[in-house]
TrEMBL record:
It is found in: Cell membrane. Gene3D superfamilies: Glycoside hydrolase/deacetylase. It holds the Pfam family Polysacc_deac_1. This is chitin deacetylase. It is a lipid-anchor; GPI-anchor.
Amino acid sequence: MTWGLTYDDGPAFYTPNLLDYLGQQNLKSTFFVVGSRAISLPATLQAQHMAGHQIAVHTWSHSALTTMSNDAIIAELGWSRKIIKDVIGVTPNMFRPPFGDIDDRVRAIAIAMGLNVVLWTRISPYATFDTDDFNINGGVTSVQQVLVNWDYILGNVTSINTGFIVLEHDLFPQAVQVATGYILPGALAHQPPFKIEPVITCLNKPLKDAYVETNDNKTNPPIASASGSAVILSSGAPGSAQATHAADSTSGGSNGASHGFSLPGMHAALLAAGLVVPAALFL
């Protein structure tokens, strides 16, 4: 009954409305931030961070990563981390790919950059905990259908033996209104009660472990410490983000060969981008 509360695609003009409600209810969330929007609304990102929410990466342009070259993926993740660090002073170590679009090549690059992948709960090859609230704004999905999706999620949370993560968004006003007017109030009234918290807390880690500069978790250290010295990330360590019950599966995107994927080549590209990465990861 533990719910890893997450919101994607902000910061946006309607994010403060969500922050106000979360603050009133003393709830904390993980916000997967789009870099190009963070640079436009830095005060909102600062407000999220100062309120004690976890900030994580959601790429720079919200594009499908499996269709990109290695260099483009590195840029999407690296520039997003940089702007977040410039605005709030710390660098996130978690990321969610747009559309859940990921394969082993993208995953390897993310891990090499010190980013653990966090998606959302999948209970079958075709059933995921996606409210589809993003599509209300474009008229593709109705509010009623989103609530049907939420009822479906509620009906399945007791059938799994783990906590769960739901896909929601704070980009458009309709999604925020559904969250603050229906989904969250219903969740708070649910019996038995949910334990609602950010992803980092779901992993039994303190909030400071969600950032490179403040992470002192010995079982899952960052790729590079604050001083810049490289350490090897144990991506399968107990308690790592990959251990969450999430839909981290290979998508139907391009394979690595189509982009000239090679581990030594990727290591060179990361170094060229100014990222400290241990060569042992690529051996």
